[in-house]
Amino acid sequence: MKKYLIVGVSGSGKSTVENELWKKGYRTIDIDQEPRLTHWINKQTGERAEYTPGKVSEEWLNRHAWLWDEAMMTELLNRDPGNPVFVVGVTSDILDQLHRFDKVFLLQIPPSVVRQRLEDRPGQDEFGKSETEVGHVLSWQGEFEKEMIIKGAIVIDAQQPVEVMVQKIIANI
Q: How far apart are CA 44 and CA 59, in angstroms?
């Protein structure tokens, strides 16, 4: 079974692409929507931490990591061995997780578009609604994207219509 990872900073369109792939009949796992898969941990103590949307400081974000449960991810990846699966999302240690996947796709957008999309994002409980969170995403974006490209991620221009992005992803699997 082929396993694909779709990454990008907050606001890059990961969930939109995931939904379109799902509509086309592909098996998808949105790590932010899969119950109990991801969680915040304190980097020093390893204990789980409670995140309050829009109410965390830059210091809090630097002291904590967003991770997935390793055993649960393994189980999810192996659940339907005859069909390809697309995992969509980013964790703090995503570079250490790349070995699990046959290909990685990076949804890339300029910082100005990140800011605009996060400001326009519907809902009150999603990461990236506060200025602190937006600043955190933007400060991390350049290095993250550079590392993903060095590791071989296939870059997808995420300013294109979702149908075009999905076509490009499917053409590369």
A: 13
Measured from the Cβ of residue 93, the count of other Cβ atoms closer than 10 Å reads 11
Strand extents, DSSP E, the chain: 3-7, 27-30, 38-42, 48-49, 64-68, 85-88, 103-108, 154-157
Q: 3-class SS at 63?
A: helix
Contact 108, 155 (CB under 8 A): yes
Beta bridge partners of 107: 156
If we measure between CA atoms, which residue out of 102, 88, 83 comes closest to residue 153? 102
If you ran DSSP here, which 8-state letter would residue 153 be given?
A: P
CB 61 within 8 A of CB 133: yes
**In this predicted structure, what is the pLDDT of residue 55?**
84
Quote the CA–CA distance of 128 and 29 in Å, as a whole number.
21
Q: What is the mean pLDDT of the chain?
A: 93
Residue 5's DSSP bridge partners are: 87, 104
Domains of the chain: 3-171 (3.40.50.300)
30 close to 22: Cβ distance less than 8 angstroms: no
pLDDT, tens digit (0-9, with 9 covering 90-100), for 96-147: 999 999 999 999 999 999 999 988 887 655 777 788 989 999 999 999 999 9
